[in-house]
Amino acid sequence: MKLNFKLLPLIFIVFFLFSSCKKEEFPYDLTQNDGIVGKWISIETYDSYYNNNKWSKTSLKYAEELEFSKDGSYKKRGYEDRKVYCFGKYSMTKSDSVWIDSSCYLGAFETAISELTPTILITQHQGRHGYVFHKYRAIK
After folding, report:
1. Secondary structure (H, E, C), 2-50
2. Which long-range contacts (CB under 8 A, 24 or more apart) does 109-118 make?
3. What is the pTM (predicted TM-score) of this model?
4. Core vs surface per residue 61-81: b (16+ CB within 10 A) or e
């Protein structure tokens, strides 16, 4: 019985540590987009080389917001300052890819779309050591 009382303070400390962790708040209103048109916020990344073949959550501190408009215009915003730091044009291909010609890059580039639903967009491109996937969530 004495052993149980000695463990009690340890149990309280462990419980306090886990219950005091602050979760990152998601400050966006969720929505459903019409195809690729709309706003998207990055929520997860899969990198077969750096992440040991698993998805990892994107901290809101480093999340990027993409906006695809009906007129073919494209914007990319940073989370912290919410300023547009890339803009340009995009076009969809017949092979489930999107071409983006943006001020962030020297020329147009193509990224594959591996999943597109009204709420989720997953893009895929070739990285240095394998494929990199970015998962986005539709936002207002």
Report:
1. HHHHHHHHHHHHHHHHHHCCCCCCCCCCECCCECCEEEEEEEEEEECCC
2. 113/36, 116/35, 116/36, 118/32, 118/33, 118/34
3. 0.76
4. eebbbbbbeeeeebbbbebee
Q: Is residue 52 a contact partner of residue 85, using CB atoms and an 8 Å limit?
A: no
Q: What tens-digit pLDDT sequence spans the chain (140 residues)?
A: 455 556 545 554 545 445 445 555 666 888 999 999 999 999 999 987 776 778 999 888 889 999 999 999 999 988 666 677 889 999 999 888 999 999 988 888 899 999 999 999 999 988 777 888 999 999 99
